[in-house]
Amino acid sequence: MSVDNEVDYDVIVVGSGGGLVGAYTAAARGLRTLVVEKTGLVGGTVAYSGAGLWFPGSAPLRRAGLGDDVEEARAYLRHVVADPSREALQDAYLAAGARLIDELEENPWFGSFVHGPVPDYFTTAPGASPTGHTVFPTPLDLAGIEAHAPLVRRSLPTERWGFDEGRLVSGGRALIGRALAAFLATGHGTLRLDTALESLVVEDGRVVGIDAVSGGERVRLRASLGVLLAAGGFEHDRVLREKHQGPLTGEWSNGVGANTGDALRAGIAVGADTDLLDEAWFVPGLVQPDGRPVFHTGTRAGIWVNGAGERFVNETRPYDQAGHEIMRLHRTSGVSHVPAHWIFDQRVIDRDSFGGPPDEPPRPEWLESGALKRADSLKELADLIGVPYGGLRATVEEFNGFARTGVDERFRRGESVWDQMFHHIVPFAADPRQNFPAVPETRWPNPLLLPIEEPPFYAATILPADIGTKGGLRTDVHARVLRPDGSAIPGLYAAGNTAAAMSGRVYPGAGTPIGSSIAFSYLAVLDLAGK
């Protein structure tokens, strides 16, 4: 082993997603900070995201005239998480978010964050906000970060289909680009790519560094103050997924492929406790022509049916809730819900398009690959997807009745604030050109309930995907990693999907995963810096 004795660091951050923001706050305090990244690109799954940050009471919300809503948000979290053991973590998160945004906005690389009106996901819970608590970074011209731009991970559409994003990027790529530039500009930050964590170095009961593999060589890197594990979850580790989340194997995850639980295993090896290993940020995944699903935020028309040809959920329900419902019913109902089938007709194609730009028919590869099936009758469609025609026919007839009255008597689609947001926009699609204003629907009383009656009929496939696992190392309010007896492991911290989520088994609002990652990375830095 090569031991790096020339350059010791104060802080080592393993992972370059949300932890990169934490690394910036450490380097900005003059701490010699090393970011270790397993791949050759910076950003992790954050780079795939919209970079929403669920930060109640933060300055962008006040600037938007929404006031200081921290106490309402606290009541909301208490209600929806419903887990007293996580209340201290919630309080720490709420205190950190607004403070962190204030600090980041002082740096011109980050600039000002802005409020995005996304309703809280449990819209009827006490304290829920119809306009939400989510803030976003502003778009970034990659030319502004010069040589660093090629290091920022591409978006998922670019990685999978070669979509040309252009020079002006938004969401996760903007946040990561800004954080990388700010981190390196401090003069105290070092980035080491293609360096995979192997194990933690412990001396006299304290974590003092890491052993890693870099360029095919094992190296030891030391940290005098502590190591922050912010290296994502274990979504692409088949063994861990089958052990804790079977029948899922990870092949349908939308997390970065390098997230295989390295940091989780390293923490466990030095005595860390774990929690929520059976959980993930589940989302419905729409299967693409390449055979793999992509995160599908919500459905504006058509219905989802199970193996019996029956509806089972409000298809526009917030995505984590819909994803969990697919998994719950598949495991408990005795009826297959994996895959589920999205059924719609030509009217939907005409109004919303499908899988591509507006006002265009589905691209040929959708039908050629079988990712989208087309039939002249419901009977033919039922045969194509392998569900009983009688069940599908009865389901469609019932739904068509709801469409005519405008009231979904079975699942109340179109009634919540979240659902009503989809009256006006088409959900995020794999091809960003599909994000366009909806064509107004005036014939039917509920724009989210269109009858399925105009042939040809179509079926697409919905699978239980995820945007990362959410179980991991158990931590305290300072992001210190805990042993089973509740004591902290000196020198070891965790954040993001490497740590068990402060929100437990629920997804309170847009930006909870990334907000948690950067808030607890920040709290780790404050603790190890003694501030």
- The total beta strand count reads 22
Mean pLDDT: 93
Q: Which geometry do the CA atoms define?
A: globular
Sheet bearing the most strands, described?
Answer: 9 strands, mixed
Distance between the termini: 35 Å
Structural class: alpha+beta
β-sheet strand percentage: 15-25%
Helix content: 25-40%
Poorly predicted regions are 425-439
Rg value = 23 Å
Number of helices: 15
Plain-language structure description:
- The protein is 29% helix and 21% strand.
- It has 15 helices and 22 strands.
- Strands 1, 2, 3, 9, 10, 11, 12, 21 and 22 form a nine-stranded mixed sheet that branches. Strands 14, 15, 16, 17, 18 and 19 form a six-stranded antiparallel sheet that branches.
- Helix 3 (70-81) packs antiparallel against helix 4 and helix 4 (87-105) crosses helix 15.
- The radius of gyration is 23 Å and the shape is globular.
Give a concise summary.
The protein has 531 residues and is α+β, with helices and mostly antiparallel strands. The chain is 29% helix and 21% strand. Strand 21 and strand 22 form a beta hairpin.
SSE map:
Elements: E1 2-3, E2 9-14, H1 19-27, E3 33-36, E4 53-54, H2 59-63, H3 70-81, H4 87-105, E5 114-115, E6 134-136, E7 140-141, H5 156-161, E8 168-169, H6 171-185, E9 189-192, E10 195-203, E11 206-214, E12 217-229, H7 238-245, H8 262-269, E13 274-275, E14 280-287, E15 293-295, E16 303-305, H9 319-332, E17 340-345, H10 346-352, H11 364-369, E18 372-375, H12 378-385, H13 389-405, H14 417-421, E19 457-469, E20 472-473, E21 480-482, E22 488-494, H15 512-528
Parallel strand pairs: 1-12, 2-3, 2-12, 3-9, 12-22
Antiparallel strand pairs: 4-6, 5-6, 7-8, 10-11, 11-12, 13-20, 14-15, 14-19, 16-17, 17-19, 18-19, 21-22
